Amino acid sequence: MEHAKTGRPFISIGELLVECIPVEPKLRICEEGAIIKTASGSCGIVACAYARLGGNAAFFGKVGRDGLSDFVYGALKREGVDVSHIVVSDEGQIGLSFVEYLENGRNFQYYRKNSVGSRLSPADIDETFIAGASAIHYAGMLLEVSPEMRAACQECVRIARKHGVPVSFDPNIRKEVMGSDEARGRLLEAIRSADIIAPTLDEARFVTGLDDPHDILRELHAWGPRVIALTCDANGAIVSDGKQIVTAGGIDVPAIDPTGAGDTFAAALVYCVLQGYDLERTALFCNCAGSLAVTKQGSIGRALPSSAEVEALMLQNPCTLSLF
């Protein structure tokens, strides 16, 4: 696989959103109060995280001509992401997301039905652009956003595989849309078509029906992915290349906001694979990157760590590493 510092871009594919987060963490969506407007969308965060780590990142998606689309477009550009292949369309406005922090985790409320981002379609794809990537990335939720978005993602994967471009996939499972056999089938096919995946341990258990992490890794490798990371929230992560397994323990950091932590981890995983890092360094680098992302509120332009910050934390030997 190709080095991340070459001219070939890592392309993250998806839907951009405006996310509104409460200034006061206890504020509920139904209550009056101050919010912070931030650029978001899982795959947009991945692109920005990759750029912050020093990689050549690009984003492929669709925005409108409304002011909020301009805001998000500008945010990605300021983060160093190549936005030249973002389609600017008259088909609608960018979607919105509101978040509240509950005792049992975050709750999101979306206003994205028929959003301009969900209207990305195969007709928008520049095959030369996708074929020239160092790797591409997308998330499982996109397969259920709209038929057009699903077809666009699947076509990008087809092009990538045709041209030997590695595919990164974040299952990003929303169980509420996984009720049909068709949706589950699309998810499993996406995993089988990927080279790199980074599900949570719970997602991996849901997909495989297995419980033990090592059994899960063997099963998922048999499906096709070459590099797999099982993220375990505050308890670290388990990374495998099919030959070795490295378990990285949790890192003790002040957890302010988990938004973007999984996306940062996914970006770091692709970055490490393209850099050619060994598995132990990969596990430590990704674990540190994901942990740093939770120490500030928000994500794009606010909380995503730089490579220097990740390296500084790595030097502190912040977690245990076990090799199997």
Automatic annotation (TrEMBL):
Keyword field contains ATP-binding: yes
Key words of the record: ATP-binding, Kinase, Nucleotide-binding, Transferase
Limits of the Carbohydrate kinase PfkB domain: 12-301
SUPFAM superfamilies for the chain: Ribokinase-like (SSF53613)
Pfam families linked to this entry: PfkB (PF00294)
Listed PROSITE patterns: PFKB_KINASES_2
GO molecular function annotations of the record: ATP binding; kinase activity
Family indicated by similarity: Belongs to the carbohydrate kinase PfkB family.
The protein, known as: Carbohydrate kinase PfkB domain-containing protein
Species assigned in the record: Anaerotruncus colihominis
